[in-house]
Each structure stands twice: as structure tokens, then as C-alpha cells.
Amino acid sequence: MREGHDFEFYGPLPLSGLMGLVGFGLISNFMVLYRFQGSIAMINTGVWD
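Now predict its structure.
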């Protein structure tokens, strides 16, 4: 029963874990790029204004 539960739990875990990790990485990278571009835009507008 314990082995069955482990197999049932670890079966879809690698795929969902990988997708979750990739999704989290993409979201975090997007947020970092968004903040980075936002700060550059504020600096540029501040300089040009």
C-alpha cells in the first residue's frame, strides 16, 4: 500500500514539478525583466524630461 501510494504520488510529480518549475522560472524572469524595463523607462523619462 505504501509503495502504491508512492508510485501514485511520484508518477505525475516529475512532469508537473518540471512544468511548475519552468512556469515559475518564466514568471520570475518576466517579472524581473518587467521591473528592469520599468526602472530603465523611469530613468529615461526622468533624464529626457
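DSSP finds two helices and no strands in the chain.
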